[in-house]
Amino acid sequence: MSIDQSDAIAALGRAAQTIQDVNAFCEALSVAWPSILRRRADVSVADLPVPTEPIPWYPLGHRSLDLSIRPSATLGYGTSDFFLQDAGSLLALAACRADVVSDRPLLVCDLCAAPGGKSTALLESIGDGFLLANEPIRSRVAPLAYNLARTGVPRYAVSSMDPDDLAVRLGGVFDLVLVDAPCSGQALMGRGKQSQASMSEHQIEHSAARQRRILDAALACLRPGGRLVYSTCTFAEAENESQLERLVSLGAIEHDSRDALAAYESWMPGAYRLWPHLHDCAGSFAAMAINLTENAPVLRKEKRQRVERVPIDELTQWYGDTSKMQCINTGAVVWGWPAEVPAWVAQLSVAGPELAHRTGQVWKPSHAAGLRRGHDALTQAFVDVDAETASQFLSGSPITCDGTGWQVVCIQGKPLGWIKASQGKGGKCIGKNQLPTAARLTVKSPG
Ligand SMILES: C[S@@+](CC[C@H](N)C(=O)[O-])C[C@H]1O[C@@H](n2cnc3c(N)ncnc32)[C@H](O)[C@@H]1O
C-alpha cells in the first residue's frame, strides 16, 4: 500500500513537524512488523524459545532474532511463558509501570480491554491488587477472558459496560485507569487491519469525539490523585496530544512522566510516541497524567446478582476447601475469587476467574482454574510430564498417566490444562484431553 505524503501530513497535524523524514514514515506504515515476545517476570530471557534482543522501552519485551522459529508453535507459548504482541503496545505498559509488581494493592481499570494484550500484563503486575477489565463489545469478552485466564492470576473481573455507565457505578474508585482507546488505527495499516481512510479528517474526528467521551468517563472513575494512562495506535495529533491538552485546560489533569521513557517524549510532557520508521514497530502513542478532579467514591448499592447454589461437592473434590473463596454460580459457570476482592465484583462481572462450567447436568472443572499458579494454584491432582508428552497433550491428544479422575497436566510445574483419566486396556490409565480448542497447538520447536 502506498501512502500519500500530503494526506499523512494533513492527518498528523503538529505531529508531522516532528517526523524528520515523512517519506520514510509513509513507507514504514506499510510494513507488517512481526510480533515480539512479552515474557512473564518469572521467566528468564534465556528460557525464551528464540534468540532475542531487548525492546528498549519495556524490560519484559524481546524481539526475536530468528524469524524462522514461530514462537506460537513452542512449548513456552503453551505454558504462557510469554504473550505475543506488537512492540508499540508496550509503550502504554511502560507508562503504567506494568513491568514492576506493585507492592501496594492497586485497584486498576482497563477501560477498553479486549483482546487483553495490556490487561494480561497489568494483571501480572498487580500484586495483591485487583483488575477490572472492561470491554463494551460483548462479542470481544470471550477472547479477553480466555487471555486473562492464561496469566494464572485470579484477581480480575470482566465487565462489559459503556464507560459512562461504569463511571456512574464506580466513580472515584480506581488508583489507575488505562484508556487504550478505539482510534483511527493508522498504525494498523501495515497489517491490513486499516486502510488509507484512517488518515481521513472524518475518521479522525469521529474517533476523537469518542475518545473525549471515554476520557471524561475514565477521569470520573479515578480517585483524586489517581493515575490516567491514555494510549492509541494512531499518529493524528487530534486523537493524541489534543485529547490531553483539553483535559489540562479544564484543570482536570496534570501531566505525569517517566524518566525511562524520555527518549520517546513528544512535544508534550508525559506524552510519548513510537514511530514505525524509527522504532521497528507499528507505532503508538501513550501519555501519563494525574487526576485532579475531586471525585468522591460513588459506590452505588446494587442489587445482588442471583446466586445459585455452588456445586460444592465437585469443587471440593477438584480443589479442596473453597469455603474461603468468594464464589458465584450463574447456573452455567462458577467464578471463584480470593476472599478479599471488592464487593462490586459480584455485581458487575460478565466473566471472571472460572472454577467450573456446566455441560448439560454435569459440572466440569474449568480450563482457567487448572492454569492458576503460584500462591493462587488450587489444591488438585497434578501430573508432571516430559516435553514430548506435553507436546502431545497440547496437540489435543490423550496421554497415558498414573491414577484416574481429573488431573492438571504440567511441565516443570507449569500448568497446561486438564485430563480426565480412566483405567484403559492392560491396566494403563489414559487421560482424555480436556483442552479447549483455542488452547491447542502444534509444537514445532521444543523451546
Ligand atoms: C485498541 S482496542 C484495545 C486493545 C487492548 N487494550 C489490548 O491491548 O489488547 C480498543 C477496544 O475498545 C473497545 N471499544 C469500542 N468502543 C468503546 C467505547 N465506547 N468505550 C470503551 N471501549 C470501546 C473496542 O471494542 C476495542 O476492544
| Broad structural category | alpha+beta
Average pLDDT level: 92
Write the CATH fold name of the largest domain: Rossmann fold
Instruction: Report the sheet-strand fraction.
Output: 25-35%
Number of strands: 23
Number of domains: 3
**What's the CATH architecture name of the largest domain?**
3-Layer(aba) Sandwich
Distinct ligands, ions and cofactors found in the model: S-adenosylmethionine
Q: State the name of the first-level CATH class of the largest domain.
A: Alpha Beta
Instruction: Indicate the low-confidence ranges by residue numbers.
Output: none
State the share of residues found in helices, binned by percent. 10-25%
Major sheet characteristics? 8 strands, mixed
Overall spatial form: globular
Strand and helix map with partners:
Elements: H1 5-12, H2 22-28, E1 36-39, E2 52-54, E3 61-64, H3 75-78, E4 82-85, H4 90-96, E5 107-110, H5 117-124, E6 130-134, H6 141-150, E7 156-159, H7 163-169, E8 170-171, E9 174-180, H8 201-221, E10 222-232, H9 241-249, E11 253-255, E12 271-274, H10 276-279, E13 284-291, E14 298-299, H11 312-319, E15 326-329, E16 333-337, H12 345-348, E17 354-359, E18 362-365, H13 367-371, E19 382-384, H14 387-394, E20 399-401, E21 405-411, E22 414-423, E23 429-433
Parallel strand pairs: 5-6, 5-9, 6-7, 9-10, 19-21
Antiparallel strand pairs: 1-3, 1-4, 2-3, 8-14, 10-13, 11-13, 12-13, 15-16, 16-17, 17-18, 20-23, 21-22, 22-23
Helix pairs in contact: 5-6, 7-8
This protein binds S-adenosylmethionine.
Enzyme class: transferase
Active site: 233
InterPro entries: MeTrfase_RsmB-F_NOP2_cat (IPR049560), MeTrfase_RsmB-F_NOP2_dom (IPR001678), Nol1_Nop2_Fmu_2 (IPR027391), RCMT (IPR023267), SAM-dependent_MTases_sf (IPR029063)
